[in-house]
Amino acid sequence: MNKIVVTGATGHLGSAVIQTLLTKMQPGQISIITRNKEKRAEFESKGFGAFLGGYDNVDALENAMDGADTILLISSGDQGDRMQEHKNVVDAAIKKGVKQIAYTSRCLKDRNTLANTLMEEHFETEDYIIASGLKYIIFRNSLYMDAIPQFIGGQTALENGIYLPAGDGEVAFALRCEMGEAMANVLMGAEFENRIYNFTGDKAYSFHNVAAALTDLSGNNVYYTNAETAAFKELMKQRNLPGPVIYKIIDFITDIRHDQEAGVYSDLENWLGRKPTGLRAGLQQLFAL
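Given the sequence above, the corresponding structure tokens read:
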């Protein structure tokens, strides 16, 4: 790999990827695309190729890909037309003669039974990449452990407990920074031989386990209540959340309840060269306990 373009480089995952890439690559071998003028200037001052634009800016994408042989497509958010944005990146890569592409997808059990239909767009992107003729690596990532505070209400959960309609469903949580590190190791060390890597923790945990770990770490009795979906929906209405947001949250948690996130694989450990951080140690970091 002589030159790589990293989309989404200024986010948490992209930053972790770049940090590891720099252990073996020079800034001049890495180009980034950002919508933030200040971030662009910051990257440029450090020797990176930096281009102003987003996934919807085809000109910026094509300019960033000049002379690149590899692109890492970090998936776009779901606020806009994510599929079209992903197609723009793939199409620009083909037009500019990029040889290989990597994509950050999601590790889910069965695309045909997902409650959260937005997740299907990850698989549709995979399909588009595979049909493109580009050599590819697909990273199917588990749910970030970093998302647990958001799911359970942050520090308030230490006092009020965890209230979610997730049943006994389990998730093979892993830290986002370790996924980024492992992804960079793959990009620098693996052949693009049309491979799929499943990056998960080495164990799956339920929210009972999360509550038990937080009880141990905080000294408070943190309880997990398996809420009824209707009651949980009503609670979110009382908090004045918009209807579409409520349904997205419920669908996400429904997939957890159905163990869509429970698969455990060894790929993350193999590419980290060590066991990924477990639940207790991860929560200790995330909650500063």
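Residues 4-142+176-199+265-274 form a domain with the Rossmann fold fold (CATH 3.40.50.720). Try to locate this feature in the token string yourself.
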